Amino acid sequence: MELFEFAADALTRLVAIDGGFFIYRKRGIETGAEPQAPALYHVFGAFADCAEMAPIEALVKEDLTLGVPLERWMLVEDVPHEALRAWLESQSVLEFGVWPLYSREEIRGAVVVARTRPVMHLTWETSHALMEACAAQISLALDMIMALRVAEHASQRDLLTGAWNRLGIERRWPRVLDRLRGDPRRYAILGILDVDHFKQINDTYGHPFGDRVLRLVAQTLRDQTTPDELVGRIGGDEFIVVAWTDAPDWRPRLFDMQNEIDSRLNGACGVSVGGSVLGLDGDTFDDCYTIADERLYENKRLRKQNFENPVG
Q: Which PANTHER family has this protein been placed in (predicted)?
């Protein structure tokens, strides 16, 4: 993170830090996202050339703040954790300190700093105050970065259904291409689903009922897809799915989704579908979307025809 690089430079210049690193546990913002394990960031100064950070990485997994008293300088011989003390001694550290990083009143990481030689031009009080101020400013900056990420994430979600909007789908499209390159035996399909006669539903039953229909469609699509597949709402009654299949055919997956939605709507209405296969029907999002849209309206025409002229 550039923030940690900037902070390391400030600590080196203002607090006479010889070396250090940052510990941080990134916060997931997507629903269902697994919490990320804490990790080391921007090892700098005297520690930058250290080839053996494994002992520290192991300690971080046990305790975000390395299991030492916080917000104070201590001589290496006073470090209570034996493995940490041995590692610091191997780096010729004289004194050492850990200042926590907070987010929403919860410790999310730490600033870990060390000196390899005595510092005469800073009093203990000044050094301590500078470290507290630096940790507080980093914490504030991390919260601001998180707020921006949350806002950006929200801008890619449909508020009514919780599905991705078109921007959210397009932002994640490169991941689809990357996965295809990594596993060429699989196929990516782009599907479009459109609620039949949706205007008539709103006019007949009211918009709250129409909203419930849209939420049910979105939930059904989520139930019919895996976490690494995409479900989006890209128009008033139009949904999009990006899913994986082992065969170059969009029909089985999308027709299964169509049948499940029709079943859950219990005759109140239904959905028409159309799809395309990335790499066969088009090489870009726009190409695949255009083909899927054409097939959607063909499916809609056939469903209307079958409804108006039922067999038998």
A: DIGUANYLATE CYCLASE DGCM-RELATED (PTHR45138:SF9), REGULATORY COMPONENTS OF SENSORY TRANSDUCTION SYSTEM (PTHR45138)
CA atoms within 13 A on the CB side of 276: 21
Nearest of 294, 247, 257 to residue 275 by alpha carbon = 294
Reply yes or no on domain 166-308 having CATH 3.30.70.270: yes
Domain 2-154 is found in CATH 3.40.190.10: no
The residues, any chain, with a CB within 8 Å of residue 253's CB and separated by 6 or more, are: 189, 191, 243, 245, 275
Domain positions in the chain are 2-154, 166-308
pTM for the whole thing?
0.70
First-to-last C-alpha distance (Å) of the chain: 67
From the number of C-beta atoms within 10 Å of its C-beta (0-12, 13-18, 19+), residue 181 rates as exposed
* Structure confidence by residue, pLDDT tens digits, 153-212: 889 999 999 999 999 999 999 999 998 888 878 999 999 999 998 999 999 999 999 999
